[in-house]
Amino acid sequence: MHFSIPETESRSGDSGGSPYVAYNIHVNGVLHCRVRYSQLLGLHEQLRKEYGANVLPAFPPKKLFSLTPAEVEQRREQLEKYMQAVRQDPLLGSSETFNSFLRRAQQETQQVPTEEVSLEVLLSNGQKVLVNVLTSDQTEDVLEAVAAKLDLPDDLIGYFSLFLVREKEDGAFSFVRKLQEFELPYVSVTSLRSQEYKIVLRKSYWDSAYDDDVMENRVGLNLLYAQTVSDIERGWILVTKEQHRQLKSLQEKVSKKEFLRLAQTLRHYGYLRFDACVADFPEKDCPVVVSAGNSELSLQLRLPGQQLREGSFRVTRMRCWRVTSSVPLPSGGTSSPGRGRGEVRLELAFEYLMSKDRLQWVTITSPQAIMMSICLQSMVDELMVKKSGGSIRKMLRRRLGGTLRRSDSQQAVKSPPLLESPDASRESMAKLSSKLSAVSLRGIGSPSTDASASDVHGNFAFEGIGDEDL
After folding, report:
1. CA neighbor of 273 nearest in space, from 251, 295, 297, 242
2. What is the pLDDT of residue 31?
3. Could you tell me what percentage of the chain is helix, strand and coil, using 3-state DSSP and rounding each to the nearest 5?
């Protein structure tokens, strides 16, 4: 998750008080909340009491006198680094102190009173689920409310997540981010002030072996089935004409488990697909479509005069990755602190083990770069849990006497219509080969250094993966 403080604001104090500087905290490029230095200092002091000074990153010190514009900019950069460091720390970033601070600040900034509202959540097939929640309910609360409405058992809630998406003109979903524990879903979606943005329920794991747990339950089976049919219709899952015929036959027999068993064998089953973007692989400014799943990033591309091809980058061969954000300078080439900022350009860059002794940077330029990074991290987390012999089953907190709030009026997952005839315009793809050696690779340098260092995120989560995984 990408935290930034790209700008400050001079605001008037309450009741005619002295003006003060406000820091706008953005999450994935969208305003999350607006806070004062004193509020962030209070958060720092609370974290220090709970976890000790040695655990915390450096916090910018108080100043006795008013700050100059240069000092305001310096403090902004220091606070941005601080927030990023706290969020990326496994202990601090998951703490209730940190997350509740951000939830309160979000609600106060958007000036949303606490009240009961009806929130619309979509299933993957477009079915609407209306749940009654409080505007102050956090992501876990809303997820539990949706589960209660659908009658999904408690022990399967952790297999699903809520995602913020943008609905495009053709009805397809463009995934913005997975909703996190530090935000209020109702406030997050309504503050965007656009009907394009929706909340969608989708499975949150990558390894299809976990399907077995979900498919044993009727509601879980129906959710997986609806998602899979929808992904096939969108072209996210790659299906031949013969496979399409077999799937439709199983649909007609209402053989949902057998349908899913066949779907599990198909290329890109369970993958998340992103909007078309640009990569520097296998050549500069190459148009690609990126999909994430099965412990890999898949790049679909077309080289001049060639058929559609696919290259696969395994996460076990990525030494590290980082998200870089840069802001184009306005005409004239200079920018004063906090002013004249243009649209942020996002890049995901990863260092990939092309062969035994050769690492190479690959860069993807996409507005969804942060979402791609989140997918990579969750695939890493899942691999590490599996490697240690653990389970992805989440131990969710239980409130209200240790049980979930169950809805009085429950809603069934609607069975999707039969698959339509396969799109004749969809091409088959040639594999570039698992090690990508079939492509002539240019020497690609490290990502551009024009971006601020505070926007670069390193991730070395694979220190525990051994050579046998390569």
Report:
1. 297
2. 86
3. 35, 25, 40
